[in-house]
Amino acid sequence: MAATEPKTRIPQQKRSIETKHRIFVAAKDQFAKNGFHGTNAKEIAAAAGVSVGSFYSYFKDKKELFMELFREHIEEKIVRILGEHQFDPNHRKEGVYRLIKAMLEAHEPYPQFHREVLAMRYSDPEVEAVFNEMDRQSLRHVERFIEQFRDKLRITDIKTAAHVISAAVEEIICSITIFGEDQDADRLIDGLADMIHRYLFD
Questions:
Q1: CB-based contacts of 187: which residues, under 8 Å, 6+ apart?
Q2: At the N or C end, where does the chain have fewer CB atoms within 10 A?
Q3: Distance of CA 61 to the CA centre of its chain
Q4: Does the pLDDT at position 1 exceed 70?
Q5: Confidence bin at 160 (pLDDT 50/70/90)
Q6: pLDDT by residue (tens digit) across 176-199?
């Protein structure tokens, strides 16, 4: 009879939940610092203060952990932060500014981890597939944002406008959070908000 692969467990008790959380936090730091390929399970376990055996009781390998972290990152960005922001259609420029700030807020907690995810996107098909789904969800949020102003828009193709705006926002956010241009953050965000406002409405 073929050997069965050991199953990872889902934490139920408080101590187990805390242990898995420590592994999560340590893994984000290690992946951000050393990259996916420069990190191993032993280093993550040591940084979390748990045994290697404990690591493997929760995760099959570092790839499974990386993907779980990535999906949690998406939930944080798309579902919670963008989903919670409401916009007043009577205040167009403020709405544009708040959209940019919401997307920036989604990147801020672990910008180095996001940088590693970007690198993995072009070398790992599984990461690319999840990233593409994240992009689709993000675009839908931007489309819904633009739809609120339909009777005030200069542009007519909302889907194309959502692509243009998402690409511009992502570029500025990467400049601020990943490439260290945070000293110019306010100036960049103000300029981007003005550009998007003029594109949509002027």
A1: none
A2: N
A3: 22
A4: no
A5: very high
A6: 877 766 678 888 999 999 999 999
Measuring CA to CA, which residue among 53, 49, 29, 25 is closest to residue 39?
Answer: 29
Determine the straight-line distance between the first and last CA of the chain, rounded to whole angstroms. 71
Residue with tokens 């997307």: 103
Are 95 and 11 within 8 A, CB to CB? no
Residue with tokens 């007043």, as numbered in its chain: 88
Could you tell me which residue, 19 or 89, shows the higher pLDDT? 19
